[in-house]
Design brief:
10 helices; Rossmann fold; two-stranded parallel ribbon; single chain; UDP-galactose 4-epimerase, domain 1; binds NADP nicotinamide-adenine-dinucleotide phosphate; 7-stranded parallel β-sheet; 2 domains; alpha/beta; binds ligand G4F; globular
Amino acid sequence: MADKIALITGITGQDGSYLAELLIQKGYTVHGIVRRTSNLLRSRIEHLRRDENIYGKRLFLSYGDLSDSTTLRRIFRDVRPSEVYHLAGQSHVGLSFEIPESTCDEAGMATLRLLEIARDQPEPLRFYHASTSEIFGSATESPQNENTPLRPSSPYGCAKAFATQLARVYRQAYGLFVCNGILYNHESPRRGENFVTRKITQSVARIARGLDAGLTLGNLESRRDWGRAQDYVVAMWMMLQHETPDDYVVATGEAHSVRDFVEAAFAVVDLPWEKYVKHDPAFDRPAEPKQLVGDASKIHKMLGWKPTGTFDQLVREMVEADLTALDKSR
Ligand code: NAP
Ligand code: G4F
């Protein structure tokens, strides 16, 4: 393979870190955009940064922010990527009700900025946009597929719907190779600590070790289609290897409630969840999809992608990783 050059926005996030590992393993040179933070420790990619065979050889980091288009343009000019994976942005749906303007700028307008930069490149490139099941919101059908009407029910979902439509327009109007990965929830031990799955598994580990007395949660009845993040970054890469650009739903096709996740997580440490879990309305959202479940038959048929593992295995992997991390830190 000729040396392929990938540029990842959001490389320090859950997906960006797994994608960087995957692409380096496939022989790519990977460039990541990181924003200035007061703490230099970027925990999810620290192992790559400390590896002297990787950092400065296969992996390079540049400072940039999604709001700073002159810097983004300069990075594209210097890196000359053949593939761009645009993953960065405020990704918490609940928080998007508290900070709607910055969320819409990052999840919506920033994608427009990047598509414009991509359009101006001297050599054609391939562009992945991190779309989401949240664009379907209060969906009119279940499971949802690539043709399901967009009915977002949060500022985050609205911004992603805008960006998804723009990506389609740039593909049709300018012939840009751009794919929307319409990904359903995907989790891992690297999941951010304020998403419900990781919040549960971290708390279960602390309760099991006697460090916490209980766990407060919002809506236990909402249902999500939870897969493994490591599988979903493979789907992103596959989309950009296909001869034509398209949009794909990436999902397991199975819905579980937050309550199911809680039960499975407490079962790993053999504790009765009812004794520890309390409802706190502070975590309820003003509006949200009750049930999101995806039909991934298109990506299965066209690209041969399918998810691995079961729901129970995912929950176990996350609880065990949190137990191990906690035990190491003590
Ligand atoms: P994540 O863990 O929250 O990571 C977000 C990344 O974006 C981080 O690297 C973050 O940097 C970066 N970022 C945020 N604002 C930025 C800004 N203004 N300028 C530059 N970088 C910025 O998200 P994820 O779970 O990996 O998800 C990746 C993408 O897929 C997101 O766009 C998300 O909305 C979308 N998505 C996720 C899921 C899912 O279930 N995980 C499903 C569908 C779609 P810091 O590390 O500095 O904060
Ligand atoms: O884990 P969540 O915060 O994920 P949510 O809102 O589904 O969004 C995630 O998946 C989307 C794909 O569908 C991505 F686009 C998005 O970037 C993000 O990665 O919440 C899941 C469910 C919700 O129904 C929420 O109301 O769990 C419910 N929940 C109940 N208690 C809670 C809590 N969510 C959080 N974060 N914290 C709670 O205490």
